[in-house]
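ASSEMBLY PREDICTION REQUEST
Request ID: AP-0331
Submitted by: J.K., bench scientist
Number of chains: three
Total residues: 1143
Priority: normal
Notes: Please return the full assembly, not individual chains.
Input sequences:
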Amino acid sequence: MAGSPSRAAGRRLQLPLLCLFLQGATAVLFAVFVRYNHKTDAALWHRSNHSNADNEFYFRYPSFQDVHAMVFVGFGFLMVFLQRYGFSSVGFTFLLAAFALQWSTLVQGFLHSFHGGHIHVGVERPQLEKSKHRQGSVYHSDLFAMIGTIFLWIFWPSFNAALTALGAGQHRTALNTYYSLAASTLGTFALSALVGEDGRLDMVHIQNAALAGGVVVGTSSEMMLTPFGALAAGFLAGTVSTLGYKFFTPILESKFKVQDTCGVHNLHGMPGVLGALLGVLVAGLATHEAYGDGLESVFPLIAEGQRSATSQAMHQLFGLFVTLMFASVGGGLGGLLLKLPFLDSPPDSQHYEDQVHWQVPGEHEDKAQRPLRVEEADTQA
Amino acid sequence: MAGSPSRAAGRRLQLPLLCLFLQGATAVLFAVFVRYNHKTDAALWHRSNHSNADNEFYFRYPSFQDVHAMVFVGFGFLMVFLQRYGFSSVGFTFLLAAFALQWSTLVQGFLHSFHGGHIHVGVERPQLEKSKHRQGSVYHSDLFAMIGTIFLWIFWPSFNAALTALGAGQHRTALNTYYSLAASTLGTFALSALVGEDGRLDMVHIQNAALAGGVVVGTSSEMMLTPFGALAAGFLAGTVSTLGYKFFTPILESKFKVQDTCGVHNLHGMPGVLGALLGVLVAGLATHEAYGDGLESVFPLIAEGQRSATSQAMHQLFGLFVTLMFASVGGGLGGLLLKLPFLDSPPDSQHYEDQVHWQVPGEHEDKAQRPLRVEEADTQA
Amino acid sequence: MAGSPSRAAGRRLQLPLLCLFLQGATAVLFAVFVRYNHKTDAALWHRSNHSNADNEFYFRYPSFQDVHAMVFVGFGFLMVFLQRYGFSSVGFTFLLAAFALQWSTLVQGFLHSFHGGHIHVGVERPQLEKSKHRQGSVYHSDLFAMIGTIFLWIFWPSFNAALTALGAGQHRTALNTYYSLAASTLGTFALSALVGEDGRLDMVHIQNAALAGGVVVGTSSEMMLTPFGALAAGFLAGTVSTLGYKFFTPILESKFKVQDTCGVHNLHGMPGVLGALLGVLVAGLATHEAYGDGLESVFPLIAEGQRSATSQAMHQLFGLFVTLMFASVGGGLGGLLLKLPFLDSPPDSQHYEDQVHWQVPGEHEDKAQRPLRVEEADTQA
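STATUS: Completed
Returned structure:
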């Protein structure tokens, strides 16, 4: 499985060199650009002007921990359902998140934008072709994956609320997200049983589509969506996402040769597009009556009279197309890049296989499956 | 295992229809009754009157996440110890909690009462009769269940404190609950080893009775129980609960044909009754000296002179009997309801079996245990 | 396995008597010494002086839950990688933490020191000699251990920040710890792949050395370490710790007959000493210019002119030697104590074996693997 000696030697250096290069480059950029801010630097901070408004570090909702628990536990364990890819799922999410934590500081500093943007780094991107049999899950792996699902569910309201202004907007975002998640959970259970064999539930649907409610209100949860609107949107998203796992993913695999192991299309893709359209609709309905003084924090340009609600809606619709274009071109380039021969990506037969990257303990699933191979041998004999 | 075709067809529609009906009815009620409150509605919220007292959403102890982590992770994983019921345990707790989250909004609105009341919805009662062999646990399942136990332990102080007034009452509730939980943990380890074979600990005791300390101070943790009192109460509860699992549950099963899989009686029942009596005692001892100004928030009627401490204690004792009556009658009616033939509850042989409701992956425990059967066959041969 | 009957009888009483004695003694001390403080006692707390500064219980960063999640989940699950010691790892951490929670109240009261000091009680050291084969891990156990690692990673900044003064110092501590942890994670992945067979990662390195960044800034994270300094320190710690697991632990076992199952030396030992030296260096560089008004909260004696920065550095260096002496003498005495015959420690062959202390369910790993042997036997036959 290790390939030729020179290849193994090359692989031995690949990950270390990548880590060393990234960490080294980041450290240099930190040394040049990053300084403590006035709330963190001992010399710049004065007890006297430590007003209540400066306390947001300790008190802030969502806290650092909220977001980290979501990324590390949530996304890390969500993919553990893969039969022999548990180490890689948890381990590489861990590595990527640790790097992203540093990088986000730099990006944040350069863009003067909020730090939440890095969140999806750890999530996206096994897209492969064969070795499909290892996509199978095992009972306990599915339970681990439910740890991931539950942490994502619990902290998704924090995630959506992280970008909104303090006050009513943050209340509204968290509440709308909770309601939408709750409704998408019920929608997922309903649809999963409806389309399942003998009316049985599919764990993959529950693990993923139940979260579609968090995605679908990503744009509109800060708006005056109304609690009923959040329920309706969440239910629709849970339904669409479940149907995607059931009917669309198999077509994607058989016709387009695309393996969407984590159902990114069904959980993030379709509900994301739906959510953008929902945002267009709700933005188009925005009035001074419905938002009052709050209009300024949600739609500042409408509040200042520089834009009509319809124009805001059109801008958002245009944003959806820009996003889709970036995603298509970026994804295509990423795919081409990974096919470059010098990157030495593992052959298709080694996908979803921890042993490529990890020393796997002797009591690996492997042994539990030895009989299977024995049986295969029997059939061949 | 699927039963006759028409039954299977019936079952296929059962869960979807239930989910659709509940979600539909809830959505209609939301559309008619639920509105954002003044802290959440953009139009009603003004930055100018956004006083510090209004910040409780962000800063509040316990947070939304505290309670959700307790319900979803805690109760969801606590029952995973069941050998072939892990999907159902985590999955259906998830479903029920998602529904309860919405329903609690409605109940809260109608009763003008605190939102914590839904908490027990996801917990109580599988009560069955046969298929007892599947109650067995497996090593890793027990470790999963300990995730549940630990989350419940960590967040039980938040749970008890959620209903109390801000300030000293909330401090006291959290501290008393911590002390009681700590003592019940030591009591459980002591008693479990004492009554165990060869002095060995039983994982079921640790997973459950260690939490009895949280239950037993449910009523009195806001009162001036004293730290010593909290330790004593917790230790007693851990002891009683462990003895219940060891000696009472087997009698319940063999004599009364009641299967209390999760030990609801031992963890919530007996410690709950003990806790109510403890509350009666501590309420009866309440004086103006002991509580000072704080009497008003803990016992408002005593503080206003409308009730004596003894009378308060008698009211609470009466409350215990009312609760027990509701529990008995409600439980009895629930049991009768579930026996109605048209509800088509699965036959006894299919209890504690994920495959009734879930598509279970091929590498199920089932296969891991196939050898056992082989060996049994061998011995018979 | 149970030994002679009288020994079994002795063991049956050991743990219960220990628990009862400790809980009893603690309860007496609580009754004599522990009282609610003015923020918790109903009579001493007045709504009128419930100033904003008194709110720190609810709002405080880190919260009770942060530290408990770190100890119970983090340390409890970190050791679950041991093949047949999962119950003991989670269970006994739970027991010790529950006891430590009470004891810390007493110690805190007596020393007027912060309550965080108990934190390491649950962590340190199985140190044994044989039964080494049970140190093997299984695939799912390693995934459980990653739950522990991730919780420790997420909450280590809270842990370091718990002892610092509110304000800029706490900001700085949390940020430095995050950066150091992030860099040690990258360092660990780099080194683990570099020294691994075929360039493969070792799960033990990731589970442990990735946390070395939290240890190495334990002393200096409150100081003006600079973000770059935190990255450099963390990367160094991750590197050194990984090399320790790879090259030093085997020597420790083969030459010195010391089994450091959890790699305490590699995770806490070497990075701890490095961290103390780093603290000496950064303290020696402290100037009024770099710290401004903040000097008073980080180095009060320097701020008051009673000590020079160099003298502070020498004091800290001396502190390192005192700590090392205490650790050596204390560890030696502890080892001698455990060898006393009347303590009846289990024979070497029973180490890392849950069955000594726990009733282990029938479907133990053991049995799950029995079938393999049967089938292998078949193939041979």
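REVIEWER COMMENTS: The domain at 148-360 of chain B is CATH 1.10.3430.10 (Ammonium transporter fold).
SIGN-OFF: pending second reviewer
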